[in-house]
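TASK: fixed-backbone design
INPUT:
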């Protein structure tokens, strides 16, 4: 059995252990995809959205914050996932697996989960972005009116 086959069988057999790490990775990819799709949308780039330039600058700042948050969130999720598998690693070491082989196994598992998370996250992100962009003309046109109603001086 090769390391790739062992990694695949570990993921299939222990899916409940991998699910939190997988879902956190999917969520990070989905949110980043949605922000990037909106930032680089032609209407935002060309200034057809009211306040598009300012919206784009704020969204770029938020995207950088999302990158930093996603890095630490995935790092924390990965470390919690690896800590929960200490007994399994000890058993594999007891059976004669070296640290290099154990690292290779974890690397292959992470690669499989990452590729699946990227594909699924981009798919869900594309779907959610499509829904958002289908709804945004209705809401973007009513937002300035809504803000005027909410923040006019007579209401304070």
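OUTPUT:
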């Amino acid at each position: 059995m090769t390391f790739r086959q062992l990694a695949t069988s570990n993921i299939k057999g222990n899916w409940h252990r991998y699910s939190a790490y997988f879902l956190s990775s999917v969520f990070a990819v989905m949110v980043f995809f949605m922000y990037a799709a909106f930032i680089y949308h032609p209407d935002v780039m060309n200034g057809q959205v009211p306040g598009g330039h300012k919206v784009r600058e704020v969204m770029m700042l938020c995207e950088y914050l999302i990158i930093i948050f996603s890095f630490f969130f995935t790092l924390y999720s990965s470390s919690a996932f690896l800590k929960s598998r200490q007994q399994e690693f000890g058993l594999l070491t007891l059976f004669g697996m070296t640290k290099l082989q154990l690292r290779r196994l974890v690397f292959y598992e992470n690669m499989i989960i990452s590729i699946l998370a990227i594909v699924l996250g981009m798919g869900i992100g594309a779907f959610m972005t499509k829904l958002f962009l289908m709804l945004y003309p209705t809401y973007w046109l009513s937002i300035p009116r809504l803000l005027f109603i909410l923040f006019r001086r007579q209401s304070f």
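COMMENT: Helices lie at 3-13, 15-39, 42-45, 52-83, 86-94, 99-151.
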